[in-house]
Design a protein that fits this description.
4 copies of one chain form a homotetramer. Chain A is of the alpha/beta class. The first copy, chain A, is 41% helix and 18% strand. Chain A has a 6-stranded parallel beta sheet with strand order 2-1-3-4-5-6, sandwiched between helices. The N and C termini of chain A lie far apart (37 Å). The model of chain A has no long low-confidence stretch (mean pLDDT 97). At the C-D interface, helix 4, helix 7 and strand 6 of C face helix 4, helix 7 and strand 6 of D.
Chain lengths: 215, 215, 215, 215
């Protein structure tokens, strides 16, 4: 039976992916923050002791609280360096993805269009996107596909916290609504279910036509 | 019943998309060059008389014969300006995509990483990608998703013609193989089947980790 | 004496480049629309009869009147296909750039962040940017540098026409002002004056920090 | 008198920039690793005690030794996180750039086209590029221009170390040579000398037409 590990699998986009994968008979470990806290490398290493291989890996984690650049402390930077970058790096250095498997990275549209509010997230998610791109070429040799999904505004608890007036915000979006986590869940499921392998080394904006950059 | 028009639907990627959509009970019109020749605007206009609306539209057409820049004539430019750009523009100006529909553009990885051999294709496909991006925001208001798929080396007759020694070429690719048209066909099918709508205004490299640009 | 041909050299950015180059003793031919109309290939060919070589070439031309996509006619497309693309192509196919020379393309920030108002310009300028990128590698062999400058909002007659309330618009810009044509003129001059050659195959946003895309 | 601080100013590109700025009567502090070691935040903070304002700041630092991903240790990541990212962040959080000033970031072409050999550099330089882009909009309000120069293969000691057979490598480059540090030095000088301010929020490939990505 195909196995999957979904980080941040207990809520938001991670939960939607877990649920979608379960619906096609995949043996999903939906890891919550209790199972693995990517901001704590010891927690990451402990997790890896019990989870050292999988067919499908979904790298997904919440983002930092918005903070103006001038007020971000050294501790803040280091915390999110772990959470958004070094935790994932440690996982990829130590986990075996089985041949023919998949790695999905749930990043953010801010890696292409960074903003002041999410400056920490913009920086470290972009850093990891570089790692992921480089590794996609190595994983390709084992028929493992690496897919970076960069969501725009999605209807999660976090978006509800970040945006003051969600209803007003939705009116400003091309589709007049937030994306639903289930759309991303189903997208991930669909790729796996259809054994689409040649989609790899790619960053996929998932933002309802909201971004302005040509690519 | 959901309807689809697939241009260049009789061979290669277009045929794979047609076949995949037929498998989920979509009423597909797989247009061949006899039905519509996008390099001939009269042919395009005639086609539109009989095909003036659809739920799903797949904009897909073959590329030009490779020619060194210095030898490309005014007639060549104008022919492929029609085939790769103005034909598609004319279609979008005159066809009604039903609310909640999809438009897929099959472009090419050369729009991001152009090359001398495919310079005509690089130019006009990039031009149309700009149109498609701009329009994605308008179509979003009617819940129509616009998805630009940019294939890398795919196992089609055309690739067999373009590449001298395909077997040797495959060894140079990260996945050690060309992509299969069916992977793109299934990808398109999967998006529609799963009613994924928030994926819009996006260019998706479909190249088996072959491209080098970070995004 | 070093020679330069500046298209659209009688006004706006083109004039500013001409003036800057004249200030460093370059023999500048500042071509006006009377000398060469890039929307008319016969005019282009005639110009090339008398101007078939140069040390420095500045490809620069005005953009189209803004028109909504639905109302753009076949004639419009073909006119601007000539003006923004095929005219430049014809020039590069027929002019000799002397070894160690420069080609500057004045494009637009809309090639990276297209918009509905300037959709024609977005498309054809992007198309030519692809040609220019490909050719930069060939020109490099003769030590000719190809530099694509992509201006954002610059204080020209055209901007004054395009923007309804310029003063209000300026307040929305990061620098609270339009760019001055002289800044681009001096930039071009400075590169030549300092014999900077390794800057080639590059697209340089010139937009006062206005664009949002990371690169 | 205009003042400048150039990090890594004692060798390679940093030295070339220092020398170029000195040639136009700028009061340059060419900081060597003895003055400030960006990999050591205490060293950074100490430096800032004595250098808390400037007109021109050049953020420049050497890159890591190439190491395969699998062998990079937690300590390596943290060291280069400081050197390539957090050191620069700390500087920008604590130094005053005088109104009308300039900040230059010397990054690398690997931020757009990452590679396995320079994976650490690709990641952290990309991360800082995001910070720099976001801040360019804030600095713009004080007429401070932020310019990210992304060099390709430049003729420095480091390149000589990284590349096994430099002569052979040069033949593979479009210009058949490495770039010279002086070209970047003169470029920086030229921008300042000509008071070009509207060039901001931009990443400028400086790679002799070597990159393949369209922008």
């Amino acid at each position: 039976m195909t196995s999957a590990i979904v980080l941040g699998g207990s809520r938001g986009i991670g939960k939607a992916i877990s649920d979608a994968l379960k619906s096609i008979e995949i043996d999903v470990f939906a890891a919550s923050k209790k199972d693995i806290d990517t901001s704590d490398l010891n927690s990451v290493r402990k997790f890896l002791e019990n989870h050292n291989q999988t067919d499908i890996l979904v790298l997904n984690t919440g983002g930092p609280v918005p903070k103006p650049f001038a007020t971000i402390t050294e501790d803040d930077w280091k915390l999110y360096h772990n959470q958004l970058f070094l935790g994932f790096v440690t996982i990829l250095q130590n986990i075996k993805i089985n041949d023919g498997g998949y790695i999905f990275l749930i990043s953010s549209s801010v890696i292409k269009e960074p903003n002041a509010k999410l400056i920490i997230s913009s920086a470290y998610r972009a850093a990891f996107a570089e790692i992921f791109k480089v590794l996609s070429k190595e994983y390709a040799q084992k028929n493992i596909s690496c897919i970076n999904i960069a969501p725009g505004p999605i209807n999660t608890d976090r978006t509800q916290e970040l945006i003051e007036n969600v209803q007003e915000f939705e009116k400003s979006l091309p589709m007049k609504r937030l994306g639903e986590p289930q759309e991303i869940g189903n997208f991930v499921k669909a790729i796996i279910e259809n054994k689409i392998k040649y989609l790899s080394g790619v960053t996929i904006n998932f933002d309802g036509a909201n971004s302005n950059y040509i690519f």
